[in-house]
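Problem 12. The chain below contains 460 residues. Write out its predicted structure in token notation.
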Amino acid sequence: MKQLWGSRFSKQLSKSTNDFNSSLSFDKKLYKYDIKGSLAHAKMLFLQGILNEEEYNLIEKGLNEILDEINSNKIDFDCDFEDIHTFIEKHLTDKIGSAGKKLHTARSRNDQVALDFRMYVKDELNNINTKLVSLIKTLINLQKEHTETVMPGYTHLQRAQAITFAHHLGAYVEMFKRDVSRIKDTYKRTNSNPLGSCALAGTTYDIDRYKTAEILGFNDICLNSLDGVSDRDFAIESLSSLSIIMMHLSRLSEEIILWSSKEFDFIKIDDSYSTGSSLMPQKKNPDIAELIRGKTGRVYGSLVSLLTVMKSLPLAYNKDMQEDKEPVFNAFETVSACLDILPEMLETMTVNKDNMLKACYKGFLNATDVADYLVNHGIPFRDSHEISGNAVRYCIENNKTLDDMTLEEYKKLNSLFEEDIYSFIDIKKTLEKRKTTGAPSSTAVKEIIKINEDWIKENE
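Solution.
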């Protein structure tokens, strides 16, 4: 078929060149945005007197008909076309005649694709934020159920101090809240209209770029025409934000995988979100969590891919930038799918409260409290830390816990120990004493839950 730019050339593209050059197979995803952008551009041209009323009405009617026909599968995407922009313009011209050829006045495919891509990214950022807020709500609901469910907290994957399951989940609430904030910030920098930059140097026509921005819901316009067509920071920043989201999802998935193992046995994943083995009939595998963990690499790859594409491109537009869309499309689809299924899995899992509590009595999680007891009796913490460490070593050597030690054994370590040491180092009581804001006691956690419920109301 004849290319939009073909008049300068004496030969048609070879089929292999056309196939290699064409982006329609993937940028057809942008058809709604291309038509929306064209409708806004046509309206602005009419308001500026560049199109007459009859031409504008024909273009508007034709574009809306094409949108309906694509939505109802009455038009097939023909990959002989170079891209979605050529595809729609050709169908418009075939439908309404010469008026369709006027639509491209004061516009290049360079600013056209930048516009379409930004509109797509804006919508997808909003979609991701909606799903993040939904995940946060799921986590908060789980927190409410488990403000008194005691479990070990870990450092270096070694049992460290007692916390609550609600407190542990709360750490992910904070991570995903930061993700929401990052997405919103990314949206702000995406929300500038590049249309009117044309190929790279603007246009001699008396257009109103602010009017187009207003019609399309942009807050501002790109203030430099070179930057308007060559900027892909918004896509890179989106991929960066999505990569951080996936890192958080992967960390949570890793813990779900660990917790569901027999070595931990803290949770049971519902059968509807598990798979089995074709060989070993006893197996119940956390495949959903593993897939989320695995798909993180896919999103990271998308970020590195686009950074690599853009790293040495001179201004302004280069064909390399056609490689921007597939990584972004794939990353948004991947993150969206993960955010859809993870809340469902969390809502249906069973928490083994007894096993979580039992785990707190192995590993000397109350050793710091032994030290704190002595601090309360006037011993400097560094000295009390050493005494507590000696107590732990004694217990290991004698197959005891700190709760099993007799008062006589405690007094051999330091004469200040009294009968109240046992109450002071009781796991549940040590936990409830940690009441500072952000700490794991039920009182402190409930305080943060209330703060985050107010956050939800502000961000829904």
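Discussion. The CA atoms of residues 147 and 446 lie 7 Å apart. Students who got a different answer should revisit the alignment rule from Section 12.3.
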